[in-house]
Amino acid sequence: MKVSIIIPFYNCPYVDQAIKSALNQTYQNIEVIVVDDGSTQYVEKIKPFINRIKYLKKANGGTASALNYGLKHATGQYFAWLSSDDMFVTNKIERQLSFMKSTGALISYTAFTTIDANNKIIDKIHSQQMNRKKFMRLLSSGCPINGCTVIANMNLIKKAGLFDESLKYTQDYEMWCRLILHTNIYYLDETLVLYRVHNSMGSVKYRRGVAKETAVVKNKYKKFFWLYLRRK
Asked: How far lies 74's CA from each of 53, 122, 139, in Å?
């Protein structure tokens, strides 16, 4: 089964490290798609890998539009998202895909390690497996999933629809809320992603925007979750 690893890129100085971590996966049946979302800086960091990746360029439109552009050009049966400032552990795809095959999961996420600008480990963030009903309640209060830990079956994405491009910051949260209406989201308790915490990251720079959009997503799915929980 081929896995399409999509890396949205916009003026990120860490993009070479992200690409290298994707290409160095122990699981070989992958394609690495870098979507240049109108970058004006650090493009030269991609050049050493250009013959080993799919490099797509588009006008700036935000993370959701970059992910969707990558998805439209993807040929894999599974989708993995890697932010350009984060990294995959070398056996990430192999371990997670094996877990999904053994459990029958159509989508899963994992634990992750936070690192600083110099790749120094800060902390390890874990969650827990829960049934669909409990997970839905958790999503009702906020986003518990790091998007870069997710692998999803491409048919599930096609069935549910692409990322919502009207959302600048919470397109991931909205997607998980939508997918939980189709299937449960499984959890693998292994730290398979290095998540970089730095002052230029979107969740730090645009904290107010994130909070505002989070409230919008909560309100949108509240009625759907309530109906599902009431039936069950």
From this structure: 12, 33, 28
Confidence of residue 202 (pLDDT cuts 50, 70, 90): low
Q: How far is CA 185 from CA 100, 104, 106, 175, 182, in A?
A: 10, 11, 8, 12, 10
CA dihedral angle for residue 175, residue 176, residue 181, residue 187, rounded to 10 degrees: 150
Residue 116 has φ and ψ, to the nearest 5°, of: -95, -170
pTM of the model: 0.95
- In the block, which residue shows the tokens 């290298």? 20
Nearest residue to 164 (alpha-carbon basis) of 93, 222, 221: 221
Distance of alpha carbon 16 from alpha carbon 98, whole angstroms: 27
Domain count, the chain: 1
Token digits of residue 227:
């109906």
Give me the pLDDT at residue 180, please: 96
The residue range of the domain holding 27 is 3-231
Q: Name the average pLDDT for the chain.
A: 95
Q: What is the spatial distance between Cα 212 and Cα 170, in angstroms, rounded to a whole number?
A: 9
**CATH code (residue 172):** 3.90.550.10
- The tokens describing 208, both together, are 């107010």
Residue pLDDT, tens place only, 82-94:
999 999 999 999 9
